[in-house]
């Protein structure tokens, strides 16, 4: 009787013939570190893509603190350099699909502007720095040690701010080295704008917004700014805050997977940015006495 191991050898040509190398997909976190950013997405995306999760921003890590000790600024350019180095040294299979969250989107945009041939497609989830400012809960969390408020402010639905997540942030903020890293990154990145890059971006992009985002100060203005990208598709998810990849993980996973595989044919009406902008305009107060006329961005 032929052994099981021997039968596997006979099946090997069939397995080799059916093997298909998956396209590399790189996840880039924002101010939240990688484990807190993508736990609801990595397994699903790994079914279709070769998922890479570079730790370019670790607040208590030696690379960040060595850079700070040498007088470096932990800004968007620094993070872009680290992402570029990771791709060149450890992946080496361009072009790449890049998926970013918040500040990570600015890193992706900077890389796409610097080396467009490296980026096949990009997905920008609640991107910061496109228009207006940010209401950063992490700043208040540092000052007041109000970790529950910090976590809850990211989500539209409070149930996503679990006790475990709140406690995880509380433990991290007790670490002085981690806290110092956070403060130096905040100092170097808050207020940074990527708006000047948008019109020159040629890379196909999917931009995902949360309609109830309380971190971005002007979501409608950000949507209009993102429209400068020549090949951008935008969606706005109702009842969703600044972390759509967590709060609406199933929908975001589907949108990302379909877009990157050229299967996102249409956008559901409920997700159309025009619908969100029209509703926002209806809710906006009419200028009158004592009110400044709203700035309209063309």
Descriptive notes:
Helix 5 packs across helix 6 (103-114). With 298 residues, this protein is an alpha/beta fold. The chain has helices at residues 4-18, 34-38, 42-45, 62-69, 76-91, 103-114, 137-144, 147-152, 163-173, 176-189, 219-226, 244-247, 249-260, 273-283, and strands at residues 24-28, 50-52, 96-101, 119-125, 205-210, 232-237. Helices cover 45% and strands 11% of the residues. The longest helix is centred in the N-terminal third of the chain and has 16 residues, at 76-91. It has a single domain (20-264), classed as 3-Layer(aba) Sandwich (Rossmann fold). Mean pLDDT is 86; it is low at 286-298. A six-stranded parallel β-sheet has the order 2-1-3-4-5-6, with helices on both faces. Helix 11 (219-226) links the parallel strand 5 (205-210) and strand 6.
Keywords:
298 residues, disordered C terminus, 6 strands, Rossmann fold, 6-stranded parallel β-sheet, alpha/beta, single chain
